[in-house]
């Protein structure tokens, strides 16, 4: 679920060759893991890579994650 006023941008080949999105704002995510195509959120000053997980993320000039369930890698 994307919070009001947030912008989520997908690439043309999303879910075909990659699962990378750009986020400005806040979103609640439920992600199904895929070892070959990890789900990646780019935004703010960080990049988040997710396996199977549920979390809330806020991306503006900073990057805030509330990890609810699962594993996340942040760089």
Radius of gyration: 11 Å
Alpha-carbon distance between the two ends: 23 Å
- Overall pLDDT, averaged? 88
Which shape, going by the Cα principal axes? globular
Spans where pLDDT lies below 50 across 5 or more residues: none
Query: What's the oligomerization state?
Result: single chain
Element-by-element helix/strand order: EEEEE
The biggest beta sheet reads:
5 strands, mixed
Question: How many helical stretches?
Answer: 0
User: Pairing-aware structural class of the strands and helices?
Assistant: mainly beta
The percentage of residues in β strands lies in over 45%
Provide a descriptive summary of the structure in words.
It is a single chain. This protein is an all-beta fold. It is 0% helix and 64% strand. It has no helices and 5 strands. The chain has strands at residues 7-10, 19-31, 39-43, 46-59, 63-74. Strands 1, 2, 3, 4 and 5 form a 5-stranded mixed beta sheet that branches. 15% of the residues are buried. The mean pLDDT is 88.
Defining key terms:
75 residues; 5 strands; mainly beta; five-stranded mixed sheet
Tell me the layout of helices and strands.
Layout lengths: L6 E4 L8 E13 L7 E5 L2 E14 L3 E12 L1
Parallel strand pairs: 2-3
Antiparallel strand pairs: 1-2, 2-4, 3-4, 4-5
